[in-house]
Amino acid sequence: MELKMAKCIDIIQFALMWSLLGRVQSQVLQLQSSLNEERHQRQSQVMQLQSSLNEELRVRQSQVMQLQSSLNEELRVRQSQVLQLQSSLNEERRQRQSLSVDLQTEIRQRETLSRQLQDESRQRGALSVQIQEETRQREALSGQIQEESRQREALLEKLRIETRERESLSMQVQEIKALLLTKEENNPRNNTQTCAYKTGDPCCSYHVMEDAWRNINNGVNNGPSAPDQVPHCDSRNTLNFTGSNWFRVQGAAGQTLVHNKCPPQRHCGTNSPLWINGTLPALNQIVSSDLCVNTGTTCCWDAVKRTIRVKKCIGDYYVYELTPNLCSCCGFCTTN
Predict the structure, then answer these.
(1) Left if phi > 0, otherwise alpha if psi is -120 to 50, otherwise beta: which for 278?
(2) What is the pTM assigned to this prediction?
(3) Range 302-308 contact pairs with CB under 8 angstroms and sequence separation of 24 or more
């Protein structure tokens, strides 16, 4: 019984050892396979590395050849530059030698010129003495001239003061005369006597324009809503042009015709207002101005624009030399 048990144990141990040996062999085979695989990978990596090294070697050799070629080219350039520099140095040496000869010649010329200048300086010294003597004489003469100049300036200042006093006196006299003449002409009692010796003066012979509807503040509407507001028209012989063509604005019409301001259409009691465009005259002066009409599309219609004369009279009023206008329905516009 014990013998059988021992055989069984031996058999079991042998089986276990055989099984263990099989596993060990299997592991050895696997390890050998993995080693072979790793060997192959290493060999492949070595071959790739060798190929890259060979490629890099070719690249480096190409770079070395390019660098050598560029160095050779640069060497040729530098040699050419050296030759050019040497040539320029030789040329400069020749130029400096020539310049040295020129400088020596110039030094000799300057020495000659210096001797001439010394001689001239001695001559100028003698001339300077003469000039100083003349300067003293001229200073004495200048003192006399300055004294005469101061006397003349004092005399001129007296003359200027007298001239200003005379001008001031003349202006005062003119102002007094103008004031007296204004008072005389504005005096109703003297008006007939004043104009008696002014034959043909428009300030004394004019028609009066005193219609209230002419004022710029008056509009006009001849539509069906306001049939009573019929526009006035100077072209329909509203003004009296017999005897004289000069007119003065007075009374309800205002004081003057509208100057340098375009009145609106359908104002001044008419469809198209007439107004004066131009420079106003000074006292007792006559100027020419444009007589314009506002048609609604333009403030100064060229087709009927006329040149008239305007005079400013003593008494601060204007008279106008008018002509019958040619537009269909226009009226002279007045203002205060």
Answers:
(1) left
(2) 0.43
(3) 304/330, 308/276
Helix (H, G, I), strand (E, B) or coil at 88: helix
Q: Any idea which residue has 């007589």 for tokens?
A: 291
Say whether 150 sits in a helix, a strand or coil: helix
- Lookup: tokens for 243: 């005897």
Burial (CB < 10 A; 0-12, 13-18, 19+), residue 180, is exposed
Which amino acid, one-letter code, is at 83?
Answer: L
User: 312's torsion region: left (phi>0), alpha (psi -120 to 50) or beta?
Assistant: beta
Q: What residues contact 25, with CB distance under 8 A and at least 6 apart?
A: none
Question: What is the number of alpha carbons within 13 Å of residue 188 lying toward its C-beta?
Answer: 0
Average pLDDT, the chain: 82
Query: Among residues 249, 248, 255, which one has the least CA distance to residue 202?
Result: 248
pLDDT in tens, 249-296: 999 999 999 998 899 988 888 888 999 998 889 888 999 999 899 888
**Band of pLDDT at residue 177, cut at 50, 70 and 90:** low
Q: Determine the Cα–Cα distance for residues 34 and 36; give it in Å rounded to an integer.
A: 5
pLDDT class for 195, splitting at 50, 70, 90?
low
**What is the amino acid identity at position 196?**
A
Is a pLDDT exceeding 80 seen at residue 192? no
130 against 176, higher pLDDT: 130
Give residues with Cβ within 8 angstroms of 246, minimum separation 6.
202, 205, 206, 207, 319, 320, 321, 322
Position 307: which residue type?
A: T
Closest CA to 324 of 299, 291, 294: 291
